[in-house]
Amino acid sequence: MKFNPSDIGDEIVSMSGTLPGETLDLKEQGIRTDGEIAYRLTIQREEETLIVLGKLQTKLQLQCGRCLDWIPWPIEIDDFCVTFEPPLATSIDLTENVREDIILRLPLRAACELDAEHRCPRSGKSYPPKDAVETPMQGGDVWQSLDKLKIKE
Ligand SMILES: [Zn+2]
Predict the structure, then answer these.
(1) Domain containing 147: what range?
(2) What sign results for the dihedral spanned by CA atoms 103, 106, 108, 110?
(3) What spacing in Å lies between the alpha carbon of 90 and ligand 1's midpoint?
(4) How far is the CA of 118 from the centre of ligand 1 (A)?
(5) pLDDT digit string, tens, across residues 43-102
(6) What's the distance, Cα to Cα, between the start and end of the chain in Å?
(7) How far, in Å, from the CA of 127 to the mean position of ligand 1?
(8) Which of 3, 70, 74, 134 has its CA 20 to 30 A from that of 42?
(9) Total number of domains constituting the chain
(10) CA–CA distance from 87 to each of 9, 12, 37, 106 (Å)?
């Protein structure tokens, strides 16, 4: 998933394709890939800076923190953004940026949503209502936390 900065002139360059799910190199337990990573990006030059913007899409499976079943976990990122300042390499590989961006948006802990009878829709196991149902932490929260960090600086 490389491009050459010298190919980016005044025109916006589009780049799209797929990467194998294994690119994510997931080592943590309770998470696995379930398909390719599709990307649709544009690269543009603003003076000496290169700006890459676009969308990423992939499918993962997360293990339910409650009953250990695997839950399909689609990921859609529509604000992928990386900038490159000089000195620019002759060839820039975006694979690691894509990997990091997806991993940043993963929840810290996933749990299935129980149905009205407090059963896991996948395993059928029943959980009494006393168990507080924790909402899985979505990527948005991660960004909010990051934003707060930035304000503190
Ligand atoms: Zn479950």
Answers:
(1) 2-152
(2) negative
(3) 48
(4) 10
(5) 999 999 999 999 999 999 999 988 888 989 999 999 999 999 999 999 999 999 999 999
(6) 34
(7) 9
(8) 74
(9) 1
(10) 16, 20, 29, 32
Q: Classify 117 in phi/psi space as left (phi over 0), alpha (psi -120 to 50) or beta.
A: alpha
Distance 93 CA to ligand 1 centre (A): 38
* pLDDT tens digit sequence for 14-32: 999 999 999 999 988 899 9
User: Considering only CA atoms, which of 96, 98, 112, 95 is closest in space to residue 30?
Assistant: 112
152 Cβ partners below 8 Å, 6+ apart? none
Output the pTM of the full model.
Answer: 0.75
Q: If you measure from the C-alpha of residue 11 to the centroid of ligand 1, how many angstroms do you get, rounded to a whole number?
A: 49
Q: Where on the phi/psi map is residue 5: left (φ > 0), alpha (ψ -120 to 50), or beta? A: alpha
By the 8 A CB rule, do 43 and 6 touch? no
Which residue is listed with tokens 């000496």? 48
Distance from residue 121's CA to the centre of ligand 1 (Å): 7
pLDDT at residue 136 greater than cutoff 90 = no
Contact 80, 53 (CB under 8 A): yes
